[in-house]
Amino acid sequence: MGTIRALVLCCTLKPSPAPSSAELLGREVLAALSDHDVDGEVIRVVDHNVRFGVSTDEGDGDGWPAIRAKLMDAQILVVATPIWLGQPSSVCKMVLERLDAELSETDDEGRLRTYGKVAAVAVVGNEDGAHHVTAEVLQALNDVGFTAPAAASTYWVGEAMGGTDYRDAGPKPETTGRATRSLAANAAHLAHLLRVRPYPAV
């Protein structure tokens, strides 16, 4: 069936080389995907000069077009975001706003170019809100043409108002590991199916 490509967009607020729990969980998802003939890369969005906007190219050195090119080459998109005030990070929201432009991008048969691409979410935080963040991100991605598999998210949340990050949490909970493995298996399975049987023209 051939190798499937994945792109993990890490939406931490911290530029490299600062450690990021969101990036760590995103890399764990990518590692789990590699067990299912999927390869890919992680991009930390704040390391690129991504402009605010809702077009495919905001000009003036905008870093989004290069990221978008990699997204178009991938069959799986994983959005990895921390929770801030119960919400996806501002970087995550910017990414979703940039993806709004895909509603105007179609192939030769009138389908959105994102049709056939699979979406998943990885969430970390020291507060409640993982389900809310997952719901916001998956709904937005579905609105712009992505397909969510069963069990399309994995997350870790620490003690409410605590100070321990996922990267410092010691042995990782098996619940998160199991969710990560399920996400990877189902996302890869769906991506392989959609490659063989794409959505019909409209």
From TrEMBL:
Task: Outline the extent of the NADPH-dependent FMN reductase-like domain.
Answer: 6-147
Q: Which InterPro entries does the protein's record reference? A: Flavoprotein-like_sf, FMN_Rdtase-like_dom
In terms of Gene3D superfamilies, this protein maps to: 3.40.50.360
Source taxon at top rank: Bacteria
Which molecular function GO terms apply here?
A: oxidoreductase activity
Question: What is this protein's name?
Answer: Multimeric flavodoxin WrbA
Kindly list the organism's lineage.
Answer: Bacteria, Bacillati, Actinomycetota, Actinomycetes, Micromonosporales
